[in-house]
Amino acid sequence: MAKTETAMEKYTKFERARIVGARALQLAYGAPPLIKVPEKMVNPIDLAEMEFEKGVIPITILK
């Protein structure tokens, strides 16, 4: 049985930074979050990283 890849494993650090940065900008401009926001979390970068780790960001990299 093959090991399933997580969001962290299938992108380079540069692709990850671009995806998280783009999503953080969307959140900063008022886009609705795709996950339940923990209490007292106001930093869009932290929220975008949480979304990325859960694999819910609808952004992909074409190779």
Strand segment tally: 0
Helix count equals 2
Bin the strand percentage. under 5%
Largest sheet geometry: none
- Please trace the helix and strand order, writing H or E for each element: HH
* Overall average pLDDT: 87
Helical percentage: 40-55%
General shape: globular
Give the class-level CATH name of the domain at 13-54.
Alpha Beta
Q: What structural category do the secondary elements indicate?
A: mainly alpha
The CATH architecture assignment of the domain at 13-54 turns out to be: Alpha-Beta Complex
Query: What oligomeric state do these chains adopt?
Result: single chain
Low-confidence stretches: none
Terminal CA distance: 26 Å
| C-alpha Rg (nearest Å) | 12 Å
Q: What fold name stands as the CATH topology of the domain at 13-54?
A: Eukaryotic RPB6 RNA polymerase subunit
CATH homologous superfamily identity of the domain at 13-54: RNA polymerase subunit, RPB6/omega
Tell me what you see in this structure.
This protein has 63 residues and is an all-alpha fold. It has a domain of 42 residues: RNA polymerase subunit, RPB6/omega (Eukaryotic RPB6 RNA polymerase subunit), CATH 3.90.940.10. It has two helices and no strands. α1 packs across α2. It is globular and about 35 Å long.
